[in-house]
Design brief:
The complex is a heterodimer of chains A (69) and B (344). With 69 residues, chain A is of the alpha+beta class. Chain A is built from 2 helices and 4 strands. Chain A has helices spanning 13-21, 36-48, and strands at 3-5, 28-33, 51-58, 61-68. Chain A has a 4-stranded mixed beta sheet, with helices on one face. The longest helix of chain A is centred in the middle third of the chain and has 13 residues, at 36-48. Chain B has 2 domains: 7-154, 2-Layer Sandwich (60s Ribosomal Protein L30, Chain: A), CATH 3.30.1330; 170-343, Alpha-Beta Complex (Phosphoribosyl-aminoimidazole Synthetase, Chain A, domain 2), CATH 3.90.650. Chain B contains 11 helices and 13 strands. In chain B, strands 8-11-7-12-9-13-10 form a 7-stranded mixed beta sheet, sandwiched between helices. In chain B, strands 1-2-3-6-4-5 form a 6-stranded mixed beta sheet, with helices on one face. In chain B, a hairpin with an 8-residue loop joins strand 1 and strand 2. In chain B, helix 2 (75-92) packs parallel to helix 3, helix 6 runs antiparallel to helix 11 and helix 7 runs parallel beside helix 9 (269-278). The termini of chain B are far apart. The chains are: A alpha+beta (69), B alpha+beta (344). At the A-B interface, helix 1 and helix 2 of A face helix 4 and helix 9 of B.
């Protein structure tokens, strides 16, 4: 499974990396971030591109699972 | 030949987005000892834009300081923005800036021409404002920072606080919103050439003309909209006044493409800090998320938020439209409700 590791990166980098990763129209992607703002921004980006997002948090890190409906 | 300086690469939270959150600040300052002085008309016990100290029955000093890391790469433009932003706090009090001191932090290896350009930008705006830069202080620092400590004059009976709004007052905002979002989009390299220009024009426009219009009318409260966002600064005004505001979001002017980028999640972290602080006091209704997000966008060198007597609102609007075309009539002040701000 494809993973974008955006931990430690400041906005807007997590969104930029996610955008790059979904350019080919893939159906599934996992994005790892470690900041609230990055989690929210990637969630907004994913929604704007028609992906459903589910978030799991472990110790301040977030794993965002993006699935194209 | 000197290498080109990419100023924004040296800072990770730019402009007023670098501000310490309002809630954090209130906690930090909560227990500090302070003298009582009856001539101190506005001090830091309240979250106002500047302090005001009465010198005589005719004259009060307005004092403020503001500085931040680069929000643009061009050093001259950055100097202009930092100075415009610092001078703005005096205008927000209804005053006129007179004296200023440079605050400068520079990396040891920063080219001299870039430092000079930064300062030249600051001097150009102080000159335009009619203020004199009389000196300053410089230190070495990894991240460059620039700003001004500004002293201005105001009549001790006729200055503006960020509280004191009255029921029925009409709210004006004198610049469009979206600086934080567009500079984030710029960082993401999503802007076309030239698309940052209106943002720079906004950030380097003094609030002088807006202030000069406002002083002719019965203004009850005024503040400038900066890092705490339109919502954060309006919340301070409403909480301080013990009232609530209704904002016609359709009347709020956004810079081009701001809502598009907000929708894509190109939001600076300050949006979330501002929402954590101000969000609980805002009834966001069922408006689109991108619109609500943009209202929490931290502004750098933003416009004035003015609460004016309703009898003067039309005249102020005409006056503003003539000299500050970006001014918008965005809402009204209401009795205090469950929330401090209602978005419609």
């Amino acid at each position: 499974m494809d993973i974008v590791d955006a931990r430690g990166l400041l906005c807007p980098e997590p969104v930029v990396l996610t955008q790059r990763a979904v350019k080919d129209g893939r159906k599934q992607l996992t994005v790892l971030v470690d900041a609230e703002a990055a989690k929210e921004n990637v969630t907004r980006f994913a929604a704007s591109r028609g992906y459903a997002v589910s978030v799991t948090e472990t110790g301040g890190e977030f794993s965002l699972s993006l699935t194209k409906a | 030949m000197e290498t080109e300086v990419k100023l924004t690469k040296l800072s990770n939270c730019a402009g007023c987005g670098a501000k310490v959150g309002a809630g954090t600040l209130a906690k930090l300052l909560g227990d500090m000892p302070t003298h009582h002085d009856e001539n101190l008309l506005v001090g830091f016990d309240r979250s106002d834009d500047a302090s005001v100290y009465r010198v005589s029955d005719e004259l009060a000093l307005v004092q403020t300081v503001d500085f931040f890391p680069p929000i643009v790469d061009d050093p001259f433009t950055f100097g202009q923005i930092a100075a415009t932003n610092a001078l703005s706090d005096v205008y927000a009090m209804g005053g006129e800036p007179k004296l200023a001191l440079n605050l400068l932090c520079i990396p040891e290896n920063m080219p001299q021409s870039a430092v000079q350009a930064m300062l030249a930008g600051g001097y150009s705006k102080a000159y335009e404002a009619g203020a004199i830069i009389t000196g300053g202080h410089s230190i070495f620092d990894d991240v460059p920072k620039y700003g001004l400590a500004v002293t201005g004059f105001v009549h001790p009976d006729r200055f503006y606080k960020n509280l004191g709004a009255k029921i029925g007052d009409v709210l004006f905002l004198t610049k469009p919103i979206g600086v934080g979002i567009l500079t984030t989009a710029e960082k993401a390299e999503m802007l076309e050439p030239g698309e940052i220009d209106p943002v720079i024009a906004l950030m380097t426009t003094l609030n002088k003309s807006a202030r000069d219009c406002a002083v002719r009318y019965r203004v009850h409260a005024c503040t400038d909209v900066t890092g705490f966002s339109l919502m954060g600064h309006m919340l301070e005004m409403m909480q301080g006044s013990g009232l609530s505001a209704r904002v016609e979001t359709g009347a709020v002017d956004f810079l081009p493409r701001v809502l598009e980028f907000a929708n894509m999640g190109l939001l600076p972290a300050g949006v979330y800090r501002n929402r954590t602080y101000a969000g609980p006091f805002v009834d966001e209704g069922d408006l689109p998320l991108k619109l609500r997000d943009a209202l929490f966008d931290p502004q750098t060198s933003g416009g004035l938020l003015i609460a004016v007597d309703p009898a003067d609102a039309d005249a102020l609007e005409r006056d503003l439209k003539a000299s500050v075309p970006s001014a918008q009539r965005i809402g009204v002040v209401l009795e205090q409700g469950d929330k401090s701000i209602y978005l419609v």
